[in-house]
Design goal:
Layout lengths: L3 H5 L7 H14 L6 H20 L12 H5 L21 E4 L5 E4 L14 H25 L6 H12 L7 H17 L5 H11 L9 H20 L6 H8 L5 H7 L5 H15 L9 H10 L7 H20 L3 H35 L8 H17 L4 H21 L11 H13 L1 H5 L3 H18 L3 H7 L4 H22 L6 H21 L4 H23 L12 H4 L4 H8 L2 H8 L1 H15 L5 H19 L5 H21 L1 H5 L12 H15 L6 H4 L7 H8 L4 H12 L3 H16 L3 H22 L1
Antiparallel strand pairs: 1-2
Helix pairs in contact: 2-3, 5-6, 6-8, 7-8, 7-9, 10-12, 14-15, 14-20, 16-17, 16-23, 17-20, 18-24, 20-23, 21-23, 22-23, 23-24, 27-28, 27-32, 28-29, 29-32, 30-32, 30-36, 30-37, 34-35, 34-36, 35-36
Length: 776
């Protein structure tokens, strides 16, 4: 057994205060549950040290402790000394005889009082420890319950002092303190948040075990902490509502404006529901003035985001009619009608629809029966917009069906929380989409323009009122139903868009895209953070991209300018207009002045009416092509490399549409037309080549000519058998195989440096230019 000073780690002659400090320090690292033997040894050393301080006994001259138990249990000596025992006999009273012969007893003097035994120093130490513990408990409780509350630093200090008390080394007392502290922390939430984590770590409350009942309330508070940290993050779906409930010094008018933001009202309502039913502790974080204001605000419906969206839809329709109407009557009448409808619907929703839905929601009513029929009629109208030709009569019937069914859905099926969740980005996206599709919208007939705007308005009505109802309608297989329906709508738009003239493709694409976005919005309401929400986001982004491309490609083709009078086609400065449309002519002006002068002469002739526009355009194209063929063989390496890239793109487009043109066979016949984008790219490249200067001779030294065998091996990735197959395909008669082989070889070529590409292709380009010159 170690001496007490080695156990406590202090000098043997230490005073009582030093002993207590050493004991408290060792107490922090000795847990009776983890190391009971160490705890008992520490306690015995502490009590032995106190006895030493009190009586200074139990030590021999050498400084070693004499263990009395060993002395008492020692065996008797074989030859003990014969020492007479001294027995103290209490004195007896003295008896005397007086003169009369009577016996008298002389009493002894009273004995001295027996002194009480000296107090046990260990018991005194325990009493002092208990008193100290009670004082620390009172201090912590006063800091939490008041009336003299402590700040966070003070609470942490009081808790650490309590946990360092020597009295907590006793297991029973530590158990009692654990139950008392758990109840105190649970009763004083949220003020006890300052010591919640420290208490959980000190008693191991986060793990499984037989904890006091109040611990489960404390663990719930810890979950509330994590949830509150998530609310404060910018990406949480309830972030806007949380900020509205936790900001204090905000005037009422700013709160009312903030309530118009999309999603704020339903988020605040959801946070109130969480605080009332599931997580009551989050209410401690609400700013009292903000919470009171929002409770009053939610007691009845107000003018909100749904009404703003209706006004914006009406204003957007009015602007589009006023700027892009096919006739003057449509521009004036359509603008007035669209604005009036927007204002009327906003007032109707504010004064009639919103109060009705609010009463229904507070009464616990679900979606009104019959929504499937109403939504089905709207889908029939959408199918008519996509598939049927928009004659005035068909357009009028489809418009009436779509708008009537959308208004019926708005009146009967809207949920209280639908309107506030429409994000601003969709409204802004519609405005950008309208700007991109302005040219296509101008080319539409009056019936198509009215039909498209009416459908967009009906889609907006359903979007702000019945996404929850649509989500319930497709609840059996939401992802499958929404995705398949969207794909079918897009297929219909593809078929319908290919048949119509310029501008008319906006109608089927707009109807298909709008309906698909509505389905994806309903799908997102089913599971906003799970798989359904992810699928809806992915398909939604795809739909927006498709709509943007459709809006751009639906613009009228530039070839339609040939049908207009020359004075309208060519402005006052013919070459300025040509350079604005084809910036490559600016390079021709400085790089090939002769070609520029020839083109200018043709443009001037078109402008003064002495030359037809179509014939003049063909003459300009012929001049550009001749200069392009003549200068390409001597062009810089970068332009020759760009030429190979364009040829590769051309072969890829022909691979499916025209394999014979791709394979190089039947050169005399007319090849399949290329896409407008590739045609514009090739024409701009031809202008740059026509304006280029010949590459210097030193540039040819930087590259090397790649042999055909190297290209074949590179195209086959080093596989000799695959290289032989490519060579056989190039010499064979199968146009499909030959086309694939040409693409593979050209891909291997364009992967090289510009200098190598130019040095490899120059001989062929020079020979081709020479053959063209001799033919001409």
């Amino acid at each position: 057994m170690k001496p007490w000073w080695e156990v406590l780690g202090i000098p043997r002659g230490s005073e009582r205060a030093a002993i207590r400090r050493a004991y408290a320090g060792k107490l922090k690292t000795t847990n009776p549950e983890d190391d009971p033997k160490g705890f008992m040894a520490l306690r015995e050393a502490y009590e032995a040290a106190l006895r030493w301080v009190e009586y200074d006994y139990g030590w021999d001259e050498e400084g070693d402790e004499v263990e009395t138990a060993d002395v008492e249990d020692a065996p008797p000596d074989e030859h003990p000394e014969r020492v007479p025992a001294i027995v103290e006999v209490p004195p007896e009273p003295v008896m005397t005889e007086d003169e009369g012969g009577d016996l008298n007893f002389t009493p002894l003097p009273p004995e001295a009082p027996v002194a009480p035994p000296p107090p046990d120093p260990a018991a005194l130490a325990r009493d002092a420890d208990a008193a100290e513990l009670d004082q620390l408990k009172a201090t912590l409780e006063a800091g939490l319950r008041g009336p003299w509350f402590k700040d966070r630093v003070g609470l942490v200090a009081a808790f650490e002092a309590l946990m360092a008390a020597p009295a907590l080394m006793e297991i029973d007392r530590r158990d009692r303190i654990e139950h008392w502290l758990a109840s105190l922390i649970a009763d004083t939430i949220p003020r006890s948040d300052a010591i919640l984590k420290q208490a959980m770590a000190a008693f191991g409350w986060e793990g499984e075990g037989n904890h006091p009942p109040a611990v489960w309330q404390i663990r719930t508070r810890l979950d509330e902490w994590r949830l509150i940290a998530g609310f404060q993050g910018g990406g949480h779906p309830l972030n806007a509502g949380w900020r509205a409930l936790t900001r204090g010094s905000v005037p009422g008018w700013r709160r009312r404006i903030g309530a118009l933001r999309p999603g704020v009202v339903p988020q605040v309502r959801e946070l109130f529901d969480l605080a009332q039913y599931d997580l009551p502790g989050i209410a401690h974080s609400f700013e009292p003035r903000a919470a009171d204001w929002w409770r009053v605000y939610l007691e009845r419906p107000h003018f909100g985001f749904s009404e703003i969206v209706l006004l914006m839809l009406g204003a957007l329709g009015a602007v589009l009619f006023a700027l892009s109407g096919a006739t003057s009557a449509l521009r004036i009448g359509g603008a007035i009608a669209a604005g009036a409808v927007g204002i009327g619907l906003a007032l109707l929703h504010w004064r009639v629809v919103a109060p009705m839905h609010w009463r229904r929601a507070h009464a616990g009513e679900d979606v009104v029966p019959g929504f499937g029929w109403r939504f089905g009629l709207w889908l029939l109208a959408a199918a008519a917009f996509i598939g049927a030709p928009m004659t005035p009569w068909l357009a009028g019937g489809a418009i009436l069906l779509a708008v009537a069914s959308a208004i019926a859905i708005l009146l009967l099926d809207a949920g209280e929380r639908d309107g506030g969740e429409v994000p601003w980005k969709r409204t802004v996206g519609l405005g950008i989409l309208g700007a991109l599709g302005a040219a296509g919208f101008l080319a539409m007939t009056a019936a198509e323009q009215v039909a498209l705007l009416a459908f967009v308005a009906s889609c907006g009505l359903i979007g702000i009122s019945a996404r929850t109802a649509i989500g319930q309608l497709i609840a059996s297989r939401p992802i499958l139903i929404a995705t398949v329906a969207t794909v079918l709508l897009l297929l219909g738009a593809v078929l319908r868009g290919d048949w119509g003239p310029a501008g008319s493709s906006l109608l089927p694409w707009g109807v298909a895209g709008g309906t698909g976005l509505l389905l994806m919005s309903a799908l997102r309401t089913r599971d906003p953070q799970g798989r359904a929400g992810a699928v809806a986001d992915l398909i939604g982004w795809g739909l927006w991209i498709i709509l943007v491309f459709a809006a751009v490609l639906s613009a009228p083709d530039t070839k339609r300018e040939a049908l207009a009078p020359p004075i309208q086609v060519v402005p006052t400065s013919p070459m300025s207009a040509l350079e604005a449309r084809e910036p490559g002519f600016r390079l021709v002006r400085t790089g090939n002045p002769e070609l520029y002068a020839q083109v200018k002469a043709i443009r001037d002739a078109i402008a003064d009416g002495t030359r037809a526009h179509a014939e003049g355009a063909r003459a300009i194209d012929a001049l550009v092509n001749a200069a392009y063929r003549a200068r390409l063989p001597r062009a810089p390496a970068s332009l020759i490399a760009a030429e190979m890239d364009i040829r590769l793109a051309q072969l890829r487009e022909w691979q499916d549409k025209d394999p014979r043109s791709c394979s190089g066979e039947d050169r005399g016949r007319t090849a399949a037309p290329l896409s407008p984008a590739l045609q514009r790219r090739h024409y701009g490249h031809a202008l740059r080549v026509a304006a280029s200067m010949p590459a210097p001779a030193s540039a040819a030294e930087k590259g090397r000519e790649i042999p055909a065998g190297d290209l074949l091996r590179s195209a086959a990735n080093g596989d000799a058998a695959a290289a032989r197959r490519l060579e056989d395909a190039m010499e064979g008669s199968d146009p499909t195989a030959k086309c694939a082989a040409r693409i593979a070889i050209l891909e291997a070529l364009v992967a090289r440096s510009d200098a190598d590409i130019a040095e490899t292709m120059r001989p062929a380009l020079i020979a081709r230019a020479a053959s063209k010159s001799s033919t001409n």
